[in-house]
């Protein structure tokens, strides 16, 4: 296949012809290109995620799903669905744990990247792949997981200017991409409470995350099941831009190299909880990752792993600290539980 034209050149041409593009467009295309043909995870990549830090993460997620499934009466068949499974590590660890208690779901991966699909097939050969939730069967309850999936979906930003609310666009000036305010009034898109906000107030929304939440909540309400959504995010509404770019484990300018750095935004868990309830699903709560993993017994699991392999005791301790430490992933990462209306309350919420 011919080498694809650099995204930066595509964007420059678009902007030269039609004027600034929306940040939503910029982030969506950048991440689609970024994930399309490479594995960004791990020490040699651009960022590392909880399941890649330790097997304990996927095991405890599997334990949570197995526990709620048993208390729901062990329905069969049942589908394990993972959104953006990366290397398939979380699924592999969770499925191994679930199997110990007799839970062997059909496996469905929602994944856009061909490169990652190939890695996922090595970790979980029996999986079936889908481009979105639409292809996931509707005949049985869902046990759904998404870890660092929603944060990769593109956001729209609205900014208050002297002339009113405008969409934040991306233009090209003095040899670089720069955020600029759009020229169309956007006041109608802003909630009443923010109409008179001071100049420079910035409102960020993620239409893709909202759409995913609507669909999965509708599915849980109709099919039964439970979902865990885990991401870097906030549980109370806030304003301000949270856009950031990571490359080789370092924060870089999100406008410097589109398609070559991972663009993410914090997830607004407050709005996701509202959406879940509006679709008739039961929001179980949103807690910090540290509190969630402690409640599920990560300290006991770590002690057991350390006792089984004393040479690795230090490494296990360090991994646990990364997952639950307040100064690491323990507080910034949140875990949200959602379930069908007739499903029990999950552990840890
Ligand atoms: N959950 C994994 C990987 C997180 S990276 C882990 O915790 O390690 C984000 C994942 O979401 C990748 O698998 C990426 O390819 C996928 N992804 C990002 N945007 C997507 C989209 N719009 N549709 C489908 N998959 C997407």
Which SSEs are present, and which pair or pack?
Elements: H1 7-18, E1 21-22, H2 23-36, H3 50-53, H4 55-71, E2 79-83, H5 89-100, E3 106-110, H6 114-123, E4 128-130, E5 142-147, E6 156-161, E7 164-173, E8 176-185, E9 202-205, H7 207-223, E10 225-234, E11 244-247, E12 250-252, E13 262-264, E14 267-268, H8 269-278, E15 282-288, H9 289-295, H10 298-308, H11 313-324, H12 329-332, E16 333-339
Parallel strand pairs: 2-3, 2-5, 3-4, 5-10, 10-14
Antiparallel strand pairs: 1-7, 6-7, 6-9, 7-8, 10-16, 11-12, 11-13, 15-16
Helix pairs in contact: 4-5, 7-8, 10-11
The structure holds S-adenosyl-L-homocysteine.
S-adenosyl-L-homocysteine is lined by residues 31, 35, 41, 49, 51-52, 84-86, 90, 110-113, 116, 147-149, 152-153.
């Amino acid at each position: 296949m011919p080498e694809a034209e650099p995204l930066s050149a595509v964007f420059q041409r678009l902007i030269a012809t039609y004027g600034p593009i929306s940040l939503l467009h910029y982030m969506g295309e950048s991440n689609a290109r970024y994930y399309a043909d490479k594995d960004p995870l791990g020490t040699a990549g651009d960022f590392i995620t909880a399941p890649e830090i330790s097997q304990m993460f996927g095991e405890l997620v599997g334990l949570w799903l197995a526990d709620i499934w048993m208390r729901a009466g062990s329905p069969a068949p049942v589908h394990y669905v993972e959104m953006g499974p990366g290397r398939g590590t979380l699924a592999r660890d969770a499925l191994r744990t679930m199997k110990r208690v007799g839970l062997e779901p059909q496996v469905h991966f929602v994944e856009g990247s061909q490169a990652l699909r190939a890695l996922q097939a090595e970790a979980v050969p029996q999986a079936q792949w889908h481009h979105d939730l639409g292809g996931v069967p509707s005949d049985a309850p869902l046990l759904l997981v998404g870890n660092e999936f929603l944060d990769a979906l593109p956001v729209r930003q609205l900014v208050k200017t002297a002339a009113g609310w405008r969409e934040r666009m991306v233009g090209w000036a003095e040899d670089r991409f720069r955020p600029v305010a759009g020229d169309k009034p956007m006041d109608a898109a802003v909630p009443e409470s923010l109409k008179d906000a001071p100049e420079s107030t910035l409102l960020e929304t993620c239409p893709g995350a909202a759409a995913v939440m609507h669909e999965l909540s509708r599915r849980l309400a109709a099919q039964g099941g439970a979902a865990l959504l885990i991401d870097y995010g906030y549980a109370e509404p806030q304003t301000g831009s949270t856009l950031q770019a990571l490359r080789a484990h370092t924060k870089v300018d999100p406008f410097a190299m589109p398609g070559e750095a991972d663009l993410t935004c914090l997830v607004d868990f407050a709005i996701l909880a509202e959406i879940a309830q509006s679709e008739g699903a039961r929001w179980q709560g949103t807690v910090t990752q540290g509190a969630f993993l402690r409640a599920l017994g990560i300290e006991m699991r770590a002690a057991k792993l350390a006792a089984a392999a004393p040479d690795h005791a230090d490494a296990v301790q360090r991994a646990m600290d990364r997952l639950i430490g307040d100064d690491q992933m323990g507080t910034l990462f949140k875990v949200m539980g959602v379930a069908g209306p007739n499903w029990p309350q999950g552990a840890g919420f």
